[in-house]
Design a protein that fits this description.
The protein has helices at 19-29, 58-71, 85-98, 120-130, 141-148, 156-168, 213-226, 231-247; strands spanning 5-13, 33-44, 51-55, 76-79, 103-105, 136-137, 174-177, 186-192, 197-203. The chain is α/β, with parallel strands linked by helices. It has one domain (5-262): Ribokinase (UDP-N-acetylmuramoyl-L-alanine:D-glutamate ligase), CATH 3.40.1190. α1 crosses α7 (213-226).
Length: 271
């Protein structure tokens, strides 16, 4: 039996809701084989939930990349939190060397629950090294505003403007995600291929249990790529998956609540 292979190059979320943990759960749910390259470890202070971010040593990241790129290969891959400019440059260099395609860049810039960019210089490195080789970039509104260097995005027109700017940096497709900011009660995502602005919409789920939603969305799209779906089909599948996962979200502790990755097959028993 042949099963599509996927790779996540991302950070570890000790709480299990985001990062590589979310990616692997999503890959498993969508019937693809998940592999990982660990770039950072994120832990939390138990009493405050302040985030502690520990980048993995560069040589260890390189060894993991070569294990998959040279020893196995993949059908599609995604990135998440990369931790440093050096890691961003290394990932871009290794992907180019290996000639890999079907690359999804999820430009993680903050940990959910924080409001500061982890390393502002990483944004510039992504624009220079990773975005030009991406088949799809999947920023949320804040990340899109950072990549496009615009102010806060609050309208559909501003989403379109940001998508066009990011596309000019070399990405084949840009998917800007919104969860009810542009239009309350609507989850509006914009897919842009350089010519057509394609809106994907659904009712926004009223919940604060959305930890890992961005990681899960990009992982679901990556799984679709690995199974041979077109960009538009993979985005549609990814949106359906995350909508159900958010609807099944639950409290993990007093600070955070993740999405439920199994919700698409447990609809009758969720919540």
């Amino acid at each position: 039996m042949s099963i599509p292979k996927t790779l996540s190059v991302a950070g570890s979320d000790t709480s299990g809701g985001a990062g590589i943990q979310a990616d692997l759960k999503t890959f498993q749910e969508l019937g693809v084989y998940g592999m990982t390259v660990l770039t950072t470890i994120v832990a939390m202070e138990p009493k405050t939930w302040d985030h502690l971010v520990f980048p993995v040593e560069l040589s260890i990241v390189e060894a993991q990349l070569r294990t998959v790129l040279d020893g196995i290969g993949f059908d599609a891959m995604k990135t998440g939190m990369l931790g440093s400019v050096d890691i961003i440059e290394l990932v871009a260099k290794e992907l180019k060397r290996a000639g890999m395609k079907r690359i999804v860049i999820d430009p993680v810039m903050v940990c959910k629950g924080t409001d500061e960019v982890l390393q502002p210089e990483n944004t510039e490195a992504m624009l220079q090294f990773l975005i030009p080789g991406a088949d799809l970039v999947t920023p949320n509104l804040f990340e899109a505003s950072q990549l496009a260097k615009t102010g806060p995005i609050r309208t559909r027109e501003q989403m379109q403007q940001a998508a066009a700017i990011i596309h000019e940096h070399g990405a084949k497709h840009v998917l800007i995600k919104d969860r009810g900011v542009i239009e309350p009660g609507r989850a509006i995502d914009l897919l842009y291929d350089g010519q057509v602005f394609d809106w994907h919409e659904a009712a926004a789920v009223k919940t604060s249990y959305t930890h890992g939603a961005g990681c899960t969305t990009s992982a679901a799209i990556t799984a679709g790529f690995a199974k041979g779906l077109s960009v538009k089909e993979a985005v549609r599948e990814g949106k359906a998956f995350i909508t159900k996962a958010i609807a099944g979200g639950f409290p993990l502790n007093s600070f955070v609540g993740p999405t439920l990755h199994a919700a698409h097959r447990l609809e009758g028993s969720v919540n």
